[in-house]
Every structure is written in structure tokens, then in C-alpha cells.
Amino acid sequence: MSFLLTDLTKLSLADARKGLTEKSFTALELTDAYLGAIEAANPSLNAYVAVTADQARDMARASDAKLAQGQGGPLEGVPLGIKDLFATKGVHTQAASHILDGFKPEYESSVTANLWRDGAVMLGKLNMDEFAMGSSNETSYYGPVVSPFRAEGSNANLVPGGSSGGSAAAVSAWLCAGATATDTGGSIRQPAAFTGTVGIKPTYGRCSRWGTVAFASSLDQAGPIARTVEDAAIMMTSMSGFDPKDSTSVDLPVPDFAAAVERGVKGLTIGVPKEYRMDGMPAEIERLWTEGLEWLKAEGATVKGISLPHTKYALPAYYIVAPAEASSNLARYDGVKYGLRVSGKDITDMYELTRAAGFGREVKRRIMIGTYVLSAGYFDAYYVKAQKVRTLIKKDFEDAFNSGVDAILTPATPSAAFGIGDEALAADPVAMYLNDVFTVTVNMAGLPGIAVPAGKDAAGLPLGLQLIGKPFDEETLFAAARVIEKSAGGDFAPKRWW
Amino acid sequence: MSVDAATVKRIGRLARIRIEEGEVAGYQDELNAILGFVEQLSEVDVTGVDAMTSVTPMQLRRRDDVVSDGGYAEKIVGNAPLTEDNFFMVPKVVE
Questions:
Q1: pLDDT at A2 over 60
Q2: CA of A286 to nearest chain B CA: how many angstroms apart?
Q3: Number of Cβ pairs < 8 A linking chain A and chain B
Q4: Interior/surface letters B24-53, b for 16+ CB within 10 angstroms, e for the rest
Q5: Which residues are within 8 A (CB) of B95 and not within 5 positions of it... i.e. 6 or more apart?
Q6: Could you say which of A135, A140, A147, A187 is catalytic?
Q7: Of A175, A255, A325, A367, which sits 20 to 30 A from B5 (CA to CA)?
Q8: Distance from C-alpha of A190 to C-alpha of A183, rounded to nearest angstrom
Q9: Domain residues of chain B, as ranges?
Q10: CA distance A95 to A484
Q11: pLDDT per residue over A417-433, tens digit each?
């Protein structure tokens, strides 16, 4: 292979890895290409909140030394972006919040440690919704991320989705070869769908949560966002694995996910849940969904109508469970141990002033809801009730899988990306929450889900489909997503304006 | 169920978030919108249904009750806004 240096950022992760191994270019050249692209794009896109250029070059040089000797891990020399939610030793880690002002952890998250073990290079930390609470990346203390996509004939800035908006924008705009992300209610899959990228939320327990800033511990999972299904599979193999430091980490062998990508869907049964056909669903989403099913059928899958009767209750149950867990997790930000402190007349005053100044509005709103539903007299009516509904949601999926369904196909989002500062969404908190209507069920049931680009809306904006799998059967999702990726055949790269 | 202004202030106090007088009405509207949205759960019959305690069918692992880590107080306090001799410093809490 021969590459112009300016083109290196356009390579898929798989091709970059190949080029590095074949010594077509060095890790330092690849890293410099990405650092240059970031420098040029970040003033427009705001995808990175910290760029670790010196560290990136040091890591790249170390990779080059290994590659020169024919050594190195599966991601040796591959430059990645890291969501600001992952603790990175000695490096900016603030969950895009003011309350973690200046925080530089003394430790490394297990997921990022796995990536460095496998040879990856860290380019920097990626913007996100504050504490991963949001669907548009507008709640970040560092300001919104701007999507690399614009509607045809328009100069209006669009959101990249959230909460992993920086991850999705950076991957889509060639500012990293792949990125880590996290998903509590759709925060990997919705931004992936908005930016024409591939994002997978693995089964709960697949990736360690240790060292990842906690939002809602029973729902949070890390996963990759990448430009192709194969790239996502390669990254996920490295990110996954048992970790004794996370008590919910599952002690199962990690398959070579990339080996499953070309497995095809012949003989698989794909479920189509009737409850996801919502009133007022845009015709282009409906068409995309039908098309996706046709593609899978053409490759030998059988399509079967199924019912997941408690679907509509997933989002309301989520908006009890997630804020409740968040109110508990975020109690640690008190102005004493790390981050921001605002002095007060006594310790309670200090707590209250610190938290009022340090948290943004959306985070405060969710802590307040969570505090309320956990408070005396309301716990059973809200929290316990929601956890019972969650049992029913999970049972719906179990019934579908027990009836012979191998994976479920749904739209990833109810629409394409919307504008930054959308007034109707700002006026009604619940309207923004509805972005996660197709994705949140998967977190509530702990299942794996992947979003894959499948088409475009009338304005040329990417649209994604979601595949939901059985617990720990991410391999089927990669195989089916690959069929959709190939069949869609589209070019999901943004037209550069930045 | 809906919250009134006094409840908003009480929740703010429980959550240790200062809610200024001018913010109460805004929070009240937002919290009531969300509580109104979750109200639809009352339609669901959960008779005989267990509340979920683990989304994966596994017991939380336990480790031996022994010291496995530690001995680096200076790192623990390394990010604190105010420390002295590896202690976190806070305003006086005992008279």
C-alpha cells in the first residue's frame, strides 16, 4: 500500500492497522496526521476538550519501536479519542462538568488500560453531555459539539447526538481512528446514528465500569464508536474483558469479534417488534426499517413479527431508575475530595454552593428527580415500581428470544439529527428524552445493541438502524450489522465544511 | 403526584444543591413535567412481579475481607481543593 500522508486520517481502523504492520507509514506519521486534523477542525466542531499531543507522540514512538521489531498488540499505533468520562491517569477527566474542575486522576480506567495494553495511542479527551446526561451534547460545560453533517443547502449547525457526541463527531470527521463511548440509555447508538458511524453498546457486564465516571451504575456500559462495523468489532475485542475491580463485570471469554463480522445472517431469525412502529413515525424511518429487513432477507434471514408489550414503559421507568442512581452516584461531588469548591459559612453551605455552581441545569434536574423518587414515602411508588416494570421489559425480550428470534431490528432514532439550540426541545425536558425511545429498552434489559448507518433522510442526513441481541451474543449483531452496512452501500462521510 | 414550591426547596436541601428563590418555579415546572411523564407506569399491573436487582443472572462477586490495596494517602488527597498532612480540610463541623 502507498498512502499520501494527508490521506492517512481517512483510513479505516482496520486499514490503518494493516498499513502500520506493513510499515507503509509509521504510527508517528499517522498520529501527526490526526493531530493536524484536530487542530484544523476543533475550533469549528468542539469535539475534543483536551488534546494530549505530547503523550500521543510518545505513545506513537513506543509503538513504532515495537512495530519495527515485528511486535505489538492488536491496536499497535492506532490513534484513538477517549470520551471525557473515562479516567485517564494524569490527564483531564471531568465528565464535561465544571464540578470536576482540574481533576486529573491518579489511576487509569480498566477500559482505557486495555486499549493501551493493546498498543493504542491516545489523542485526547472527547466532549460529551455533562455526566453523560443528554441526547444532543448541549449540556457540556465546554459547550456543544457541532456535527460534521449539515442538511443539504443549509449552513445551520446540527447536533451530533449525545451523550457521546464528541466521540461520534470525531470519528465521523476523521479526528481519530475510533473512539470510546458510553451508553446508559442510548448514548452510543443515538450519536452514531446521527453521524453515519457504527456504535455498539455491549451486554451489561462485558466491559468493565471501573474507572469510568458513574452515571447510573445498573445501566452504564462502555463501547466503541467507529467508522465501520469491522472497526467497531476490533475495538470492542480490546475494550472487553473480565475485571475483578468491577463487581458486575462478567467472567466470560472475549470472542474475536472481528472474526464474526463476515459470518452473514443465513438461517437467522430477525424479530420485528410491532410496538416500535409508533404513531407519527416519519415515512423515511419506516422505509429505512423495511429496507433493512429486505436486505437481511436477501442474505438468507427469516423475518418474524414479535411483540414487546412493555416497550412504551421503558422510557418512563428509565427516568426513575437512572436519576435515582445518578442522585446517589453524584453525591460524591461535595467540594471536599476533588474538583470545584465554593466556600460557605459552614459545611452544609459549602456543599450546597459547590453543587449549585458545579453542576449544570440538566444534571441538577436529574439529581432532584432522583432525590425525590428515593425520598421517604415515595421509594415504593416510584423506584420499586420502576424496577418491577424493568423486570417485565426484560421478560418481553426473553420471551422473544425463547420463541426462536436471534436478533431484533428496529430504527435507531425517531428522526435524523436536529439543530443546536432547538427551542421546542429546550422548552420541554420530556421531548428531548424521547430521542432514546428505541434505545433505552436495551439498557433496561442489559442487552447488547448496535447502531449502523443504513440510509439518509430527504436532507441527506444519516439515519441508522438498530439491532438488539441476546445477552453476550454481540457476534450476531456484528454479522447482521455488516450485512446492513454492505447492502446500504452508501457513503456516510460528511462533506467537509469546517 | 406533583411537587409544590416547598417540596422543590426540600428536595434541593436533601440533594445539597442550593436552589435560589428565583429558580424554584422553573424547577417545579420541570420536575412536574417529568413526574407527569412517568405517571403512565401506574397503568402497569406489577402484581407478583419481583423488582429487578440484577440485570444479568449473576450474584455479585465477593472478595476476601483483606486489605488488597492502599498505602498512598498522598494520591488520595492529591486532587482535593484543600488538604493538610494528607487530611481533607473542611469548615469546622464540631463546636
A1: no
A2: 26
A3: 167
A4: beebbebbebbbebbeebeebebeebeebe
A5: none
A6: A187
A7: A325
A8: 9
A9: 5-43
A10: 33
A11: 999 999 888 888 888 88
Q: Which residue in chain A has the smallest CA separation from B44? A: A389
CA distance A166 to A160: 8
- ipTM comes to 0.96
Q: Is A154 a catalytic residue?
A: no
Stated as kind and residue range, the H or E segment containing A484 is: helix A474-488
Q: How far apart are CA A330 and CA A193, in angstroms?
A: 29
Q: A278 at the B interface (CB within 8 A)?
A: no
Give me the sign of the Cα torsion angle A59, A60, A65, A69. Answer: positive
Set of cell numbers at residue A19: 498499513
Give B92's pLDDT tier (boundaries 50, 70, 90). confident
Tell me: pLDDT of A358 over 70. Answer: yes
pLDDT tens column, A254-313: 999 999 999 999 999 999 999 999 888 899 999 999 999 999 999 999 999 999 999 999
User: What pLDDT, on the 0 to 100 scale, is given for residue A240?
Assistant: 98
- Residues A83, A201, A456, A470: which is the catalytic one? A83
pTM of the model: 0.97
Q: What's the farthest any 2 CA atoms get from each other in chain B?
A: 57
Instruction: Answer yes or no: do B17 and A338 touch at CB < 8 A.
Output: no
Contact in structure between A448 and A474 (CB atoms under 8 Å): yes
* C-alpha cell of residue B21: 428563590
For residue A195, pLDDT over 90 is answered with yes
Nearest chain B CA: its distance from A297 CA (Å): 31
C-alpha pair distances (Å), B18 with each of A96, A427, A461, B34: 21, 23, 42, 21
Which pLDDT value is given to residue A255? Answer: 98
What gap in Å lies between CA A292 and CA A485, rounded to an integer? 10
pLDDT tops 80 at residue A77: yes
DSSP string, A350-364: HHHHHHHHHS-HHHH
The A residues from 370 to 389 touching B (CB cutoff 8 Å) are 371-372, 375, 378, 381-382, 384-389
Tell me what pLDDT residue A1 has.
47
Considering the domain A12-255 in this protein, what is its CATH number? 3.90.1300.10
CA distance A208 to A110: 6
CA distance A328 to A122: 31
- Locate A224 and state its grid cell: 466503541
Q: Residue A434, Cβ neighbours under 10 Å: how many?
A: 18
Q: In the predicted model, is pLDDT for residue A4 greater than 70?
A: no
Closest of B60, B69, B67 to residue A247, by C-alpha: B60
Chain A hits for B88, Cβ within 8 Å: 336-337
